Amino acid sequence: MGPVQKSQTTSEAAGRSSTVVQARDAQPGSYVTVIGTIVARQRENYYTFRDASGDIRVEIENSVWQNRKVLPGMQVRLLTEVDQGPTGPYLWVKSLQLMD
After folding, report:
1. pLDDT computed for residue 73 by the predictor
2. Among 14, 26, 87, 100, which is disulfide-ready with 30 (CB 3.0 to 4.6 Å)?
């Protein structure tokens, strides 16, 4: 049996940022914070998020938006949980903050 990796808690993830590449490599159930832009809507609650390292699919439920309008190119900070879907890893967004 290999070493046990500890998952980050929500508060630990909120304190430091990860890149999309790091998020893709994180264990499902880990919490990561990413900063970048939402570049496209894929379907329903799924979007494409991009930072300098690449793109990843994110799931943003209506309650997370809090009636805020996010336009392409606007920078956001997302606190997320890494999840694994049939097409690979994606980020389940817990909170969204608009960056100034």
Report:
1. 84
2. 26
